[in-house]
Amino acid sequence: MSTPNPSQKRQLIDKANQRVLVITSLAAFIVIFCLVASKTLFGQLLYQNRIVQAKKTTLSQLKKDFSAAQNLETAYQAYISTPQNVIGGNPSGSGPNDGDNGKIVLDALPGQYDFPALATSLTKLLSGQGVKIQSISGTDDEVAQSEQAQTATPQPVPIPFQVSANGNYQAIVNTAKTFEASIRPIQVQTITLSGDDANLNLTLAAQTYYQPQKTFNLSTKVIK
Fold first, then answer.
1. Domain spans in the chain, listed from the N-terminal domain onward
2. What is the mean pLDDT of residues 100-122?
3. DSSP assigned state of 149
4. 3-class SS at 148?
5. Is 137 helix (H, G, I), strand (E, B) or coil?
6. Is there a contact between 152 and 123 (Cβ–Cβ < 8 Å)?
7. Sheet containing 187-196: which strands, arranged edge to edge?
8. How many helices (H) and strands (E) does the chain have?
């Protein structure tokens, strides 16, 4: 068997070194690829876990909301189905004290600024008291009020108005009592009387209220 000469040995060593380099490079590539892939897969796993947890939380909240909505509907139906409303009227009647409790509540504290409707309500309220209505005035501020930002926790907003009426003493007394008995919250600020018992002039400045409708804000959340 012949012994390789130095030149052949060198070639064999170079080939061996190249083979080792290729194998080492390939092994390093595989290791790096596995590390990167493992990190990516681990990140995806964590992301999927966050999505699953968010879905579980949302589903749990939806179940609670659905149950609360059903309970609210049941309570509302019971509230409007009473044989007599909260002010002693007939739920199915058409008199000034009639109407179901839902209508009574909406009339007492409407959900929007509507001065023409208030003026009509005041006219109806005073028409049976034996007084002559001279004027019902106020500010029709519906446009400006409607532009106010809506909120999930609305508060009552005042609606100022003035009433001028004329009648005898008893009619004026009845008118004052009518404001006290109104289902709408009315805060009297000033009362001015002039004339005599047979012919009294009443000028009343007061304010009632409306409460903007509550808003329910639905939002989306990006899971990262």
1. 8-81, 83-108, 112-210
2. 86
3. P
4. coil
5. strand
6. no
7. 132-138, 157-167, 199-210, 187-196
8. 5, 4
What topology does CATH give the domain 112-210? Alpha-Beta Plaits (3.30.70)
Burial zone of 62 (CB within 10 Å; 0-12 exposed, 13-18 middle, 19+ buried): exposed
Q: How many whole angstroms separate alpha carbon 196 and alpha carbon 193?
A: 9
156 phi and psi, to 5 degrees?
Answer: -60, 140
- Structural tokens at position 210: 């409306």
Q: What is the 3-state secondary structure (H, E, C) of 74-127?
A: HHHHHHHCCCCCCCCCCCCCCCCCCCCHHHHHHHHCCCCCCHHHHHHHHHHHHC
147-157: per-residue pLDDT in tens?
A: 666 777 888 88
Question: DSSP class of residue 210?
Answer: E
- pTM as predicted: 0.62
> Does the pLDDT value for residue 122 go beyond 60?
yes
Q: Furthest-apart CA pair in the chain: how many Å?
A: 149
